[in-house]
Amino acid sequence: MAAAALQGATEEVEHLLARGDDPNEQHADLGLPLHLSVERGHVAVVRLLLAGGARPMLRDDRGLTAMEVALRVDNTEILRLLCERLEGRCQRWRWRLRGWCARAGCCSGAESSPDWDPPDSQRARQRRRQIRTMARAQAYNRR
Predict the structure, then answer these.
(1) Residue pLDDT tens, the chain, 143 long
(2) Less CB within 10 Å around the terminal CB: N or C of the chain?
(3) What domain range is 9 assigned to?
């Protein structure tokens, strides 16, 4: 199923789901089918996988959810599909979503902050915080 999702083969994915294959089964080399189709921007395959029971908050071998992958590739249409699948429960993940729902225009996240940070800026903020903490510790030890 992962190979079909990667290629965007909607008929093949539909056939595999009808046969009873698990959409959450991770391929050893490729990864999770939902994550692969999100990464490649195959909207029709994402719809099929979500209808077939794929879990959008399942983490792949990189530690990413399908929502995080959708934001890394900047695909608001797929993000909207994922939010709809979560039926508003994405508010529980608000600290991680950081206004993504407002950007996609879905669910009750529309009142979230309109200024959106790309996922990489979170790492930069963490690194700056580490540097400040180390500088304070060095200043304290010099006293």
Answers:
(1) 888 888 888 899 999 999 988 898 888 888 899 999 999 999 999 999 999 988 888 888 888 888 888 888 888 788 888 887 876 555 555 544 555 565 555 555 444 444 444 455 667 777 778 888 888 888 888 77
(2) C
(3) 2-142
